[in-house]
């Protein structure tokens, strides 16, 4: 096992590796090469916008929910407002613009956030140390999302996975969209919170 290296500058992402106690209680993976955008409906255009997305096989969530289809994830962040994510660098604005034409504004946010998938049998216990949202599976279910503050970092996260919200191995899984400049601080908080359960970081390189 390894402790957080003192030599790693606070502005750098936590290097991949194992931290804390032995075991695989919590694992985090950086999703590289994703694109992001915000979508904001024009006044009075929401019904038409939702219908246009539905024709394309996409759901605009009503409220703090996440919906994934066709490689695109849409998260409701407020009335008539969504965050959108997709695999592939800078592909998302181009996908959304035809659907939003005349009905909504699309803003490229691909450089603004990093996506972190956080999972494991002890993930809820670790996240409970800083996430002020009830993550009990009876309350925060598959597709539920929240915009909140964790370790003084404003972010959006949602419960991922199949209809149960869990991965194929049955462990809970969440995706966090963390502002890029605050991601190093968030990861240090996460590593410290998950250390007692055994924490593994991947996708960030070896520092």
Mind sketching the topology for me?
Elements: E1 17-19, E2 26-31, E3 34-41, H1 46-55, E4 66-69, E5 72-78, E6 81-87, H2 92-100, E7 104-108, E8 113-119, H3 123-127, E9 145-150, E10 153-159, E11 173-179, H4 183-194, E12 199-202
Parallel strand pairs: 2-12
Antiparallel strand pairs: 1-12, 2-8, 3-6, 3-7, 4-5, 5-6, 8-11, 9-10, 10-11
Describe this structure as you would to a colleague:
With 207 residues, the chain is of the alpha+beta class. The chain has 4 helices and 12 strands; from the N terminus they run βββαβββαββαβββαβ. Strands 1-12-2-8-11-10-9 form a 7-stranded mixed sheet, with helices on one face. A 5-stranded antiparallel sheet has the order 4-5-6-3-7, covered by helices on one side. β5 and β6 form a beta hairpin. It is globular and about 55 Å long. The mean pLDDT is 91.
Query: Strand order, biggest sheet?
Result: 1-12-2-8-11-10-9
User: Segments where pLDDT lies below 50 for 5+ residues?
Assistant: none
Mean pLDDT: 91
Indicate the CATH architecture of the largest domain: 2-Layer Sandwich
Give the class-level CATH name of the largest domain: Alpha Beta
Gross geometry: globular
Strands, total number: 12
Main sheet attributes: strand count, strand direction, barrel closure = 7 strands, mixed
Fraction of residues in helix = 10-25%
How many helices? 4
Portion in strands? 25-35%
Task: Give the N-to-C terminal Cα separation.
Answer: 16 Å
For this structure, what is the CATH homologous superfamily of the largest domain? Probable tRNA modification gtpase trme, domain 1
